[in-house]
TrEMBL record:
The keyword Nucleotide-binding applies. The keyword S-adenosyl-L-methionine does not apply. This is Sugar transport ATP-binding transport protein, putative. GO terms for molecular function: ABC-type maltose transporter activity; ATP binding; ATP hydrolysis activity. The chain holds residues 1 to 238 of 334 of the full protein.
Length: 238
């Protein structure tokens, strides 16, 4: 399960409303990309869904239940942070185990989940290394592994590849898409990169200044952009 519904959600910081009333449904199993220029509210929206920021008004539903006041750790969602959020002094195995240890998952279950995640991410041979002994792409996979073992109903990614060089980014895009194919878990992926949006998404949400300009598949947006902004951003033919 992993359906997420936003009903008339708004967010203000002080006097400034950065998210005007917004409605959005993300279906279970969908790969949804939030795309838009820097400062348009992508991270804020993701953090509202994760519960890392309180919404100012409106409601958030997860799998049909009101989650508006549910604390982040109880929402069943996993925010994937950039690879630099790993603990440098811990092995890959311990980095991946850490969230389960905190949640009190029994040791044998921890072991089962670590092996599953390592297999899904091609990290089996690297479990005893420290993050410093890994490539950027491998470190990013460990960061994802730490989320997988929590068996979330959705993964939330905030520009997870922005620290990687161009070649690595291409590979990691493929790996994340492949992971989605394998797990079939809801994923919400934030990027300002049109190519990433167009190549990875089932559904794209185009944001401008906190507003949703258009929601649709990459082909919908390409062939039938609703306005000049979407056309320009997606690169539709004139
Ligand atoms: P994006 O991720 O699309 O670049 P953000 O969600 O980070 O955009 O920011 C959206 C707007 O909200 C920006 O104008 C930003 O300055 C503002 N903002 C974000 N977080 C805060 C905060 N904690 N306090 C005040 N303003 C914020
Ligand atoms: Mg951002």
């Amino acid at each position: 399960m992993g359906q997420i519904k936003l009903n008339q959600v708004t967010k203000s910081f002080g006097e400034t409303q950065v998210i005007p009333p917004l409605d959005l449904t993300i279906e279970d199993g969908e790969f949804t990309v939030f795309v838009g220029p820097s400062g348009c509210g992508k991270s804020t929206l993701l953090r509202l869904i994760a519960g890392l920021e309180d919404i100012t008004s409106g409601h958030i539903e997860i799998d049909g239940a009101d989650a508006t006041n549910v604390p982040p750790a109880k929402r069943g969602l996993a925010m994937v942070f950039q690879s630099y959020a790993l603990y440098p002094h811990m092995s890959v195995r311990k980095n991946i185990a850490f969230p389960m240890k905190m949640a009190g998952v029994p040791e044998d279950e921890q072991k089962r989940r670590i092996e599953g995640a390592a297999k899904a991410l091609n990290l089996t041979d690297y479990l005893d290394r420290k993050p410093g002994q890994l490539s950027g792409g491998q470190r990013q996979r460990v960061a994802i592994g730490r989320s997988i073992v929590r068996e979330p109903s959705a993964f939330l990614f905030d520009e997870p590849l922005s620290n990687l060089d161009a070649a690595l980014r291409v590979g990691m895009r493929l790996e994340i898409s492949e992971l989605h194919e394998r797990l079939k878990t809801t994923m919400i992926y934030v990027t300002h990169d049109q190519v990433e949006a167009m190549t990875m998404a089932d559904k794209i949400v185009v944001l401008r200044a906190g507003f949703i300009e258009q929601v649709g598949s990459p082909l919908d947006l390409y062939h039938a952009p609703r306005n000049e902004f979407v056309a320009g951003f997606i690169g539709s033919p004139k």
